[in-house]
Write a structure and sequence with these properties.
Layout lengths: L4 E8 L6 H9 L17 E7 L3 E7 L9 H13 L5 E6 L7 H10 L6 E5 L7 H11 L7 E4 L8 H10 L18 H17 L8 E10 L5 E10 L2 H8 L4 H18 L2 E10 L7 H6 L8
Parallel strand pairs: 1-3, 1-4, 4-5, 5-6, 8-9
Antiparallel strand pairs: 2-3, 7-8
């Protein structure tokens, strides 16, 4: 029998509870984009944590569970629900609230229907006292028969190693799914698009609602002594007024988004990047099946 354990763990929870931040911290590399806006993660993002002595955890970071308001929202909720059936362990991430809200009660109801160990991860505990942590545990502990309850801070890394150790307890023995150098199954184009979207969300703050997407029109490697990637990308928004905000006065906002995104993409690719950005308006793209799939949101994951 193999001494290694390998399996799948998913992170679920309401939007903006820190799922992507926690996953990036656990695997030690930035793959999922983060922002303080809900519904930042739109696809199921698969990342891989490998320990040569223990085995491999394949993480699925899902969109936040929320009430859908359009087709993109429905797609995101379906991705999150379907993922719960395909894994060995579920990590349910919650904020340190002393009362369980309606959104978390709905998630608890979904979790009663799955026959998978559930680890309750209480995030952001760096913001509360030890006594308050005990109150949060008391509020949640009777909702489900949890396999474990672990208070963590995804921001500071507090207790994150305990999460990894707990997951391994519930994984089956078996060979690794990926080679030890694999960090994600996401295509580089898609990660680059998401990094541009993240920088746009950060720069625009509350000025443009969540209705932006990014498509990579071309991504080519220029051969030479020092590799350079030429990347052309388009930021899609829903209104003409949004287009003006994204471009900014004399192109200043678009330039800032491009500079910040290029820095992240260069770190990821370990190469120079020549990034060109455009902005286009596609009205109501979030309610179009064709456009949703065109921007990389895969229908086969529903």
């Amino acid at each position: 029998m193999s001494e290694l354990k390998s399996g799948f763990a998913t992170l679920i929870g309401r939007p903006n509870v820190g799922k992507s931040t926690l996953m990036n911290h656990l695997i030690g590399q930035k793959i999922a984009i983060t922002s303080n806006k809900p519904q930042t993660t739109r696809n199921r993002i698969q990342t891989v944590y490998t320990d040569n002595e223990k085995g491999q955890i394949v993480f699925l970071d899902t969109p936040g569970m929320h009430k859908a308001k359009n087709k993109l929202g429905e797609y995101m909720v379906n991705v999150a629900k379907s993922t719960m059936k395909d894994v060995d362990v579920i990590l349910w991430l919650v904020e340190p609230d002393k009362e369980v809200g309606g959104g978390d009660k709905r998630i608890a109801e979904q979790l009663t229907k799955v026959d998978v160990p559930v680890i309750l991860v209480i995030n952001k505990v760096d913001m509360i006292s030890h006594d308050e942590i005990l109150e949060v545990i008391a509020a949640y502990k009777d909702l489900l028969d949890f396999a474990e309850i672990i208070p963590v801070s995804a921001r500071t890394g507090e207790n994150c190693k305990d999460v990894i150790d707990a997951i391994y307890k519930y994984l089956p023995y078996g060979p690794m799914f990926y080679d030890e150098d694999t960090i994600t199954d996401q295509p580089m184009r898609q990660i680059a698009a998401e990094m541009i979207r993240e920088k746009a969300l950060h720069a625009l703050q509350n000025e443009v609602p969540h209705g932006i997407a990014v498509s990579i029109d071309q991504m080519k490697l220029r051969e030479g002594k020092r590799p350079i990637y030429d990347i052309d990308a388009t930021i899609i928004c829903e209104r003409d007024s949004h287009k003006g905000i994204i471009i900014g006065k004399q192109g200043a906002m678009l330039k800032q988004i491009g500079t910040n995104a290029r820095y992240e993409i260069e770190k990821m690719l370990e190469a120079k990047v020549n990034l060109k950005l455009w902005v286009k308006v596609k009205k109501d793209w979030r309610d179009s099946d064709f456009l949703i799939s065109n921007f990389g949101y895969r229908k086969d994951e529903e």
